[in-house]
Design brief:
With about 250 residues, the protein is an alpha/beta fold. The chain has one domain: L-arginine/glycine Amidinotransferase, Chain A, CATH 3.75.10.10. The chain is built from six helices and 15 strands. A three-stranded mixed sheet has the order 2-1-15, with helices on both faces. Helix 3 links the parallel strand 7 and strand 8. The longest helix has 15 residues. It is globular. The termini are close together. The structure holds citrulline. The site of citrulline has 19 residues, from helix 4.
């Protein structure tokens, strides 16, 4: 059974880091409701939902994807690029270890945010962003080499993380909103999408993806390719430069 790591939103969510967006008010009641609905999509499809211990003093703690990246039975615990987020990893690491995965850790001076890591087949694209540095990427490359993963660094300057600009459909086609993507040519197959919030898909299975409700034209485009598309409203997290991918870590057996 696939497993899902999540952490419920902190009451301080509205104070989360912002890099490319201006701060707008976050609805304190709506954010937890949207989070519950997001988790329910997975639960109702048979995923085993594992809640990481709350981290209420960390506004961005809900974005668990940034704290750990899973490669088969190996979990790489990240060292956040933003100092305010460094305290999030320990509790995520504990949850991951309890799940029976092997653990490798990014150490100073390396920084790596999980949002910068996009896996397609055995290739791992890593965004060289304001959050992930060359030392972090090199440590990841070293940790993954024994398991046969190839790590490819790609530039990211227009959005927070690599996966704020591009993600991949089940067949490995990379989708992205062109004005947010530095190097579309870095990917074997790149397909532009027409909406900013259409860049993020979570692959639920080989036929089904989960997307933001704020990208209806993109959802129709994916359906026209033959995919089943589920949508959730994650507006309160999008205000903090989050998206559907960053609210969970997927552990597939
Ligand atoms: C941050 O700036 O770190 C948070 N406000 C948003 C993190 C979003 N994470 C992601 O896209 N993987």
């Amino acid at each position: 059974m696939p497993r899902l790591l999540v952490r419920r939103p902190s009451p301080l969510l509205a104070e989360g880091e912002l890099t490319h967006l201006d701060r707008v008010p976050v609805d304190p009641a709506l954010a937890p409701t949207q989070w519950e609905a997001y988790v329910e999509v997975f639960r109702s499809r048979g995923w085993d939902v594992i809640e990481v211990a709350p981290a209420d003093s960390h506004p961005d703690g809900v974005f668990v994807e940034d704290a750990v990246v899973v490669f088969g039975d190996l979990a790489v615990l990240c060292r956040a690029g933003a100092e305010s987020r460094r305290g999030e990893a320990a509790s995520v690491g504990a949850a991951v270890e309890a799940s029976g995965l092997r653990l490798s850790t990014i150490e100073a001076p390396g920084t790596l945010d999980g949002g910068d890591v996009l896996k397609i087949g055995r290739t791992v694209y890593v965004g060289a962003s304001s959050r992930t540095n060359a030392a972090g990427t090199a440590q990841l490359r070293e940790a993954l080499a024994p398991d046969g993963w190839e790590v490819v660094a790609v530039p990211v300057s227009k959005v927070l993380h690599l996966k704020s600009g591009v993600t991949a459909l089940p067949d490995g086609t990379v989708v992205g909103f062109p004005s947010l993507v530095d190097a579309p040519g870095a990917f074997e197959k790149f397909v532009p999408v027409p909406e900013e919030h259409g860049t993020a898909v979570v692959v639920l299975d080989s036929q089904t993806v989960l997307m933001s409700a704020d990208a209806p034209v993109t959802a129709a485009q994916h359906r026209a390719r033959g995919l089943d598309v589920l949508t959730v409203d994650v507006s309160e997290f999008e205000k903090l430069e989050g998206c559907v991918t960053c609210l969970s870590v997927r552990i597939r057996d």
